[in-house]
Amino acid sequence: MKRVSFSLLLILTFFVFGCSKDDGAGEVFEYNQGNLLGRYALQSLKSTEVITERVRGFEVTTTTVSTGDTFDVKFTFEEDGFATANGTYRVTQRVTQNNQTTDTAFIVVLNQEKLEYIVKSSLSQLELGGIKYEVKDFSPRGFKLHHQEREQDGDVKTETTIDAEFKR
Question: pTM of the prediction?
Answer without folding.
Answer: 0.80
